[in-house]
Design goal:
The protein contains seven helices and seven strands. It is of the alpha/beta class and about 220 residues long. The chain has a single domain, classed as Rossmann fold, CATH 3.40.50. Strands 3-2-1-4-5-6-7 form a seven-stranded parallel beta sheet, with helices on both faces. It starts with a strand and ends in a 12-residue tail after the last strand.
């Protein structure tokens, strides 16, 4: 299938791209940075998803909106408005089968930087709007909301015993997800799943469920 993924230069987006490539799909990536992916079935476009110069790409079958920033002055512009631009340009056409959004656990808990949490909450709401409109093509629209993930972006926590302990003390399963696990979720929701739509999946090792009851 023909897959378009945003934010493929590193982290979750790169992991998702590699998952689809290893599964035999043709992958197109869009990122403001160059790509380190070396695969004959991968095409890379260097572009800003918030810009008005997105490349013309036809007949996308799966669209995965992953690109985003955190705690900048552009969280809402890129994470929400840029994601909307990408979806409106590529998703609504006869070949589409699935649209996926990589949101965040903060979309439901609110427990991160204010504009970041707001942008990801907006992404989940927009995902549901897309589900309503894209159903005429027989396509699904869903989001996954990771909590902590083992990426370079989070090294300041991973490499700090004190910060790591504080995070693990608030997590039912005392670990974070790997990039490969999030990629597996993305593949399942877009390729294997045929009936779930308009849903957000929280993948946070039980962080949001932790309740310190003291009697």
């Amino acid at each position: 299938m023909k897959i378009l993924i945003t934010g493929t230069s590193s982290g979750i987006g790169k992991g998702i791209a590699e998952k689809f490539l290893n599964s035999g799909h043709n992958v197109i990536g869009i990122d403001v940075m160059d790509s380190a992916i070396n695969n004959d079935n991968y095409t890379h476009y260097q572009a800003d998803i918030f810009s008005d110069t997105l490349p013309d790409i036809n007949d996308i079958e799966i669209l995965i909106n992953n690109a985003g920033v955190q705690n900048t002055n552009s969280d809402i512009d890129i994470n929400l408005k840029g994601t909307i631009k990408v979806t409106e340009k590529y998703a609504f056409q006869d070949k589409i089968k699935s649209v996926l959004y990589v949101a965040s656990s903060s979309a439901s808990t609110g427990s991160e930087f204010p504009e970041y949490a707001a942008s990801k909450g907006g992404v989940v709401a927009y995902m549901k709007n897309v589900a309503l409109r894209i159903s005429e093509y027989g396509a699904t629209s869903n989001s996954i909301s990771p909590g902590g993930v083992l990426t370079d972006l989070n090294n300041h926590i991973i490499d700090s015993p004190d910060l790591w302990k504080k995070v693990m003390d608030e997590t039912l399963l005392p670990k974070w997800a790997s990039v490969e696990e999030i990629a597996d979720w993305a593949y399942f929701v877009t390729v294997i799943n045929k009936s779930m739509t308009a849903q957000d999946i929280l993948i946070d090792n039980g962080e949001a469920a932790k309740s310190n009851f003291i009697w």
